[in-house]
Amino acid sequence: MVTEFTKGRLKVKMSNTRAELGEVAAKEVAAYIKELLSRKDEVNIIFASAPSQNEFLAALLTHEIEWNRINAFHMDEYIGIDPDASQAFGKFLKDRIFSKVTPKSIHYMNPQAQDPEEECRRYAALLKQMPADIVFLGIGENGHLAFNDPHVAFFDDPESVKIVDLAPECRKQQINDGCFKSLGEVPTHALTITIPELLHVDKLYAIVPSKAKAEAIRATCDGPIRTTCPASILRTHKDVTLYVDKESASLVIR
Known about the structure:
By secondary structure, this protein is of the alpha/beta class. The chain has one domain (3-245): 3-Layer(aba) Sandwich (Rossmann fold). Helix content is 29%, strand content 21%. It contains 7 helices and 11 strands. It has helices spanning 18-37, 54-60, 89-98, 116-129, 168-176, 195-199, 214-222; strands at residues 3-7, 10-15, 43-47, 70-74, 76-78, 105-107, 134-137, 161-165, 189-193, 203-208, 240-245. Helix 1 crosses helix 2. The radius of gyration is 17 Å and the shape is globular.
């Protein structure tokens, strides 16, 4: 059972469970990819990396998609982390989807680049060369989009990809998600695609289950549109669908 409502221009679809949320989102995403591929040779997709995406990515694998016509990107990565570490976002995507399908190309951020600023420029150039058609988003417990935490989120950011320092709340979420055992293990800096670069994409899908995200979803849907909750800017985009479950939507006014 899916309940639908809108918040500004934001389309919200609420499922009863995480599993149902993943299935509903995957079905609609797969249909849109198929429709895009009927009129384009290739589709470029930016993927989020977080436990919130697990059910969605698993469900997406059950659909017939011409992955050999998909160019894949990921939206953020810890600076300095071993690319093969379980917490690395590239590794997350490799384990959950890119080891199971064969996209035309996969473009990972390099967390161990000698010059992180140059890595930002390299990745920004790739995004300019292959503009994204679709973004799969998560929303952080503090309302962040990608690693654009409130203190480094700018709705008019001039950069496409940048280096950020991670807010304490963001780093604590990584422990809550079971990715790290202690705060000292969580990297302090990351590479991230910026908010304007994400919003420039025509089609956005935000997949956000769990009670831990309830306050962030309330602020996204009902709070003021400002960088104290970066995800609130989604209400202004022309085509975003937010998939929530009853727990993550429990504080939203309906």
